[in-house]
Amino acid sequence: MASNNLILKNWLLQEQNFNDNLILSRKRPTKISVHDIRVAVKKLRSYLRLKEEITGDKWKESFSKISALFKTFGRLRDYDMSLILVRKLERKELLSFIFFKEYLSVNRSLTRKWAKQDALKFNDQDADAFN
């Protein structure tokens, strides 16, 4: 049935992306795993909104732990992107933001630890919101 149902097929793909990147993030959250898990959550959230429109099934309460993980990973993504943009600006404008980069790096490191801890705490029951 999944091969004929495009929505179900894509749902299962995003669920797999979420789980694969969660495993990677439990070892060490990387720019790619953080980005991919956030994209998967956004897509799954959209499918849940569609399901609620069709069936009336509420989902937001059961999605709270996934939302918390999403927010933690969002903070890490913000620091990663900020560092990339500052480095690009430095090269382009021949400027130096040593102390600002240090601030971003220290906070990124701390946020990476929190993201890893949250990924380790996240368990299969928390992912039940996908079902």
Distance between termini?
16 Å
The number of helices is 4
Order of helices and strands: HHHH
Fraction of residues in helices? over 70%
Total strands: the figure is 0
Radius of gyration (CA) equals 18 Å
Q: Which structural class do the helices and strands define?
A: mainly alpha
- Mean residue pLDDT: 92
Overall form: elongated
- In the predicted model, the low-confidence regions spanning at least 5 consecutive residues are none
Strand content: under 5%
Largest sheet: none
Secondary-structure blueprint of this entry?
Blueprint: H1 6-27, H2 31-55, H3 64-93, H4 98-121
Please characterize this protein's 3D structure.
With about 130 residues, the protein is mainly α. The chain is about 75% helix and about 0% strand. The chain contains four helices and no strands. The longest helix has 30 residues, at about 65-95. The chain starts with 5 loop residues before the first helix and ends in a 10-residue tail after the last helix.
Descriptive key words:
131 residues; mainly alpha; elongated
Summarize it:
With 131 residues, this protein is mainly α. The protein has helices spanning 6-27, 31-55, 64-93, 98-121.
